[in-house]
Design a protein that fits this description.
The complex is a heterodimer of chains A (about 150) and B (about 700). Chain A is about 35% helix and about 15% strand. By secondary structure, chain A is an alpha+beta fold. Chain A has 2 domains: about 80 residues, Ubiquitin-like (UB roll); about 60 residues, Orthogonal Bundle (DNA polymerase, domain 1). In chain A, strands 2-1-5-3-4 form a 5-stranded mixed β-sheet, with helices on both faces. In chain A, β1 and β2 form a beta hairpin. In chain A, α3 crosses α6 and α4 runs parallel beside α6. Chain A starts with a strand and ends with a helix. Chain B has 3 domains: about 160 residues, Aldehyde Oxidoreductase, domain 4 (2-Layer Sandwich); about 150 residues, Aldehyde oxidase/xanthine dehydrogenase, molybdopterin binding domain (Aldehyde Oxidoreductase, domain 4, 2-Layer Sandwich); about 325 residues, Aldehyde oxidase/xanthine dehydrogenase, molybdopterin binding domain (Aldehyde Oxidoreductase, domain 4). In chain B, a hairpin with a 4-residue loop joins β5 and β6. In chain B, α11 runs parallel beside α15. The longest helix of chain B has 28 residues. The mean pLDDT of chain B is about 95. The chains are: A alpha+beta (about 150), B alpha+beta (about 700). The interface between A and B is large, with 61 and 61 residues.
Chain lengths: ~150, ~700
């Protein structure tokens, strides 16, 4: 059954079962590959997107549940010559190793800074409680987020 | 000419030896670019940026001019595996010499064209200017034939003092795409007509499929094929979520006969009850020194089975058309994988093209190769349609090859002055390499499940000097007497293979913990005690450097909650030198708050690249050492989700500071695995420093801390 969802400010009609997790609609119907599959049960954060201002794992939320809501993906916050300050900070800090977790982390951080532009170190770490990084890039990621939080 | 008269080919540096034609490595393009063809692959470690720096340096061209061809069995040099922290030594050195020779050939052409001698050139970004006037460029001079020749390695690379790019922190070129959501991984591939596949694995090792209602799975929406071949069950569907649903249904409806094949305890000491192949790998004896023994210490250390646990489950894309396969994979070795695929698929290697595409973090032999075979087996069922196959999280935890469990027993004697006069090290472990590419059989998971299986070969264990289970088992310290024995338990109830640093994590954990125990018994400071037993100047330098960086104070005691500890190793006893000091807090559980490292990896190509690897290595090892262990019962692996296998979180990650000791005149050494051993031991030593309790079994959990305090 066709469903219409709003992604990065534009409406998209997709023909998917309404139980389909949002992640597969984003990746396979809309070809937005930035949100990535990690666990399928909202434990790792690799698939994080922003829905109505909140960071939400897209792997276990049915597409029918996001109709009428504003969905933002990593592709929607910036790219190319128009980088989001967080994206620029992650490049400046070289805050990636394999990078598979990074778009999810940037989405979590974006939602955090949108609601709380000057979070403490503890608040940043707390916000990232649902994001895992296996390469051990934590310090660089925290530095990149702090850099934006401090307006640097 | 008889064969005996044939000149023996000169031994060439690094991977040039096995891939001797210059244009296998690089091409100078007439459009002002250079294409390099590394056989080593990006696995999240930043290697491609370092290789670009090396080539730009030798050619005197801007970094931006260099293009990187993806590793592909149809044209890339065969560099075996990207593993063992050897990519700079092997691939980097091949490219360095090939580029130096290419530059030399271009200058010879320039000299002929401009009618001047070689000494008269100034080269800047590929532009060649003669002092006497006249100019040309690499791009004008190059031709197809230029590099169609065997490398000689007779053109000396630039001296380090002239380096412009090498030794600088050139930003990684893959990061902008990765922070903006641009497709970067094999997981993100999209081919016309692509289908989605999943495999429903058996519930346990040696389980036999007893019954399956195929019809109900085939009837599910979107399902285009069901592949049933012995105990291998796969499904292909139009949409990804349909494939997942069909996989779940397969798992629910298939009935399996299971066998209890696993040890009755997850305690690594199960190894001690198994048959082992015992080999003394180092022995020296000095009767006079041993006669001075005044006190003897013994201790036993263990590490459980642990997982690579990449954030992105393994993935591959494959097509089968006209008898030929193309497979896109995040394997660490496209050529060995192609060999194993050919055996299992029953086709010649020439009918398979394997192409590397990046995956999520690798850390050793994970499910990448297995997923490649899965994808090929599914693609065979739908000729002409590409199939994208990804493992689910539970597939990865249940079926990836693990880092082996290990048990290490040490004993040593001190003389009356507190010097070690004898040392013995006995280690029990499974093998640490079951990678693709064995002579007999195939090291691919699905191969063993097919109706006509290709059997698993005898598990391997890399030999010395690098070693596998015995990696870093021979102490670098100078002891007058020592004996090191490797008890290799070849039969592994659960598949084990290379996980970052192989046996070095547990061997160094044991050696460096024991050095602290001995220092304590001798009443010595741990840093001074190590230096007393160590002649190697570079080893001493990293220990001294990290002590300075951390502000180490001799004989400093912890305060009952906080403490500091040190660990040191030279990776493989022939790679980089790393010393680590950590600061911990132990209230209810052990938390690493701060880590310092000093690293000597010889000539540094990209300082920030090494620092990133060491930071990551330390943080990952903190996670291994404090938290990680695979769980199983007699039949099944019980670890399926991140809840079952917690890893270090952002709230728990320590601050890490790294000092690099650059040695531009020394060979460049890899650093990706140098921090693992020292970090694990430094944590246990810091716990002892803080609380006086010695923890010898990894992971250093809350329950074990309480038990250690009660002893």
């Amino acid at each position: 059954m066709p469903l219409t969802i709003s992604v990065n400010g534009a409406p998209h009609t997709v023909d998917a079962d309404e139980e389909t997790p949002l992640l597969y609609v984003l990746r396979n119907d809309l070809k937005l590959k930035g949100a990535r599959f990690g666990c399928g049960v909202a434990q790792c954060g690799a698939c994080m997107v922003i829905i109505d201002g909140k960071a939400v794992p897209s792997c276990d939320i049915p597409v029918s549940a996001v109709v009428g809501k504003a969905i933002t993906t990593i592709e929607g916050i910036g790219g190319g010559d128009r980088l989001h300050p967080l994206q620029k900070a992650f490049i400046d800090e070289q805050a990636a190793q394999c990078g598979y977790c990074i778009s999810g982390i940037i989405m979590t951080a974006t939602a955090l800074l949108d609601t709380k532009p000057r979070p403490s170190d503890g608040e940043i770490r707390e916000a990232l409680a649902r994001n895992l990084c296996r390469c051990g890039t934590h310090q660089r990621i925290l530095r990149a987020i702090r850099r934006v939080a401090e307006g640097g | 000419m008889s064969p005996a008269d044939k000149p023996i080919p000169r031994k060439l540096p690094g991977s040039l030896e096995g891939n001797r034609t210059l244009d296998r490595w690089l091409r100078i393009n007439r459009d002002g670019t250079v294409t390099i063809f590394p056989g080593k692959v990006e696995i999240g470690q930043g290697i491609l940026t370092a290789l670009v720096q090396i080539v730009a340096e030798e050619l005197d061209v801007a970094i931006e001019r260099i293009r990187i061809a993806p590793a592909d069995t149809s044209y890339s040099p065969d560099e075996g595996m990207t593993s063992g922290s050897r990519s700079i030594q092997e691939g980097g050195m091949a490219l360095r010499y090939a580029a130096a020779e290419a530059r030399d050939l271009l200058l010879a052409r320039a000299a002929a064209k401009l009618g001047v001698s070689l000494e008269q050139f100034v080269i800047s970004d590929g532009e060649i200017t003669a002092r006497s006037g006249g100019r040309t460029t690499y791009w004008e001079l190059s031709s197809e034939q230029l590099l169609q020749r065997e490398a000689t390695a007779e053109v000396a690379p630039k001296p380090a003092a002239q380096h412009v790019f090498v030794g600088t922190s050139v930003p990684r070129r893959d990061i902008p795409a990765k922070v903006t959501g641009v497709p970067s991984y094999v997981h993100d591939m999209e081919l016309p007509g692509m289908l989605h596949g999943r495999v429903a694995r058996p519930p346990s090792r040696r389980a036999q499929l007893a019954a399956l209602d195929e019809a109900e799975v085939r009837a599910l929406p979107g399902v285009t094929a069901l592949v049933r071949d012995g105990n291998f069950l796969g499904v292909i569907a139009e949409r990804e979520e349909q494939a997942i649903r069909a996989q779940r249904r397969l798992a629910r409806s298939a009935r399996w006969d299971e066998t209890a094949t696993l040890p009755d305890s997850t305690d690594p000491r199960y190894l001690l009850g198994m048959k082992s192949e015992d080999e003394v790998i180092s022995e020296k004896s000095a009767a006079a020194a041993m006669a001075r023994a005044a006190q003897t210490l013994e201790a036993e250390y263990t590490r459980p089975l642990i997982a690579h646990a990449s954030i992105g489950p393994s993935c591959a894309v494959a097509t089968f058309e006209d008898g030929r396969y193309t497979v896109w994979t995040h394997s660490q070795g496209i050529f060995p994988l192609r060999g194993d695929l050919a055996k299992v698929l029953g086709v010649a290697e020439g009918n398979i093209v394997v192409i590397h595409v990046e995956g999520a973090g690798c850390y050793g032999h994970n499910g990448a190769d297995d997923a490649a075979l899965d994808a090929a087996l599914l693609a065979r069922a739908v000729p002409g349609r590409p199939v994208r196959l990804q493992w689910m999280r539970e597939d990865e935890f249940e079926w990836e090859p693990y880092g082996s469990a290990m048990v290490i027993r040490l004993s040593a004697a001190l003389d009356a002055t507190g010097h070690i006069v004898s040392w013995t090290h006995d280690l029990w472990s499974h093998g640490h390499s079951t990678r693709p590419g064995p002579k007999d059989g195939a090291n691919l998971l699905a191969a063993w499940h097919l109706a006509q299986p290709v059997k698993a070969p005898r598990p391997g264990n890399p030999g010395l000097p690098g070693g596998g289970s015995h990696r870093n088992a021979i102490p670098l310290y100078d002891f007058p007497s020592q004996r090191v024995t490797n008890h290799l338990v070849r039969e592994a109830p659960l598949r084990t293979s290379a996980l970052r640093s192989l046996g070095a994590h547990a061997n160094v954990f044991a050696i460096e913990s024991f050095m602290d125990e001995l220092a304590h018994a001798a009443g010595a400071d741990p840093v001074e005690f190590r230096l007393q037993h160590l002649k190697d100047a570079r080893a001493r330098a990293v220990i001294e450097a990290v002590a300075r960086k951390a502000g180490w104070r001799s004989r400093e005691r912890g305060d009952g909650m906080r403490g500091r500890g040190i660990g040191f190793a030279r990776y493989k006893n022939l790679g980089c030198y790393v010393a680590v000091i950590v600061e911990i807090e132990a209230e209810n559980e052990v938390r690493v708050k701060h880590a310092f490292a000093a690293v000597d990896a010889g000539q540094v190509i990209n300082p920030d690249g090494i620092i990133n690897q060491i930071e990551g290595g330390i943080i990952q090892t903190v996670s291994w050492t404090l938290k990680e262990q695979m769980n199983f019962d007699r039949e099944r692996v019980l670890t399926r989700t991140w809840e079952d296998y917690p890893i270090l979180t952002f709230a728990e990650a320590p601050v890490v500071e790294v000092v690099l000791l650059n040695r531009p005149a020394e060979p460049a050494l890899g650093a990706g695995e140098g921090a693992q051993g020292p970090t694990g031991a430094a944590i246990a030593n810091a716990v002892h420093n803080a609380l006086g309790a010695r923890m010898r079994d990894m992971p250093l959990t809350r329950d074990r801390l309480i038990a250690a305090l009660a002893r």
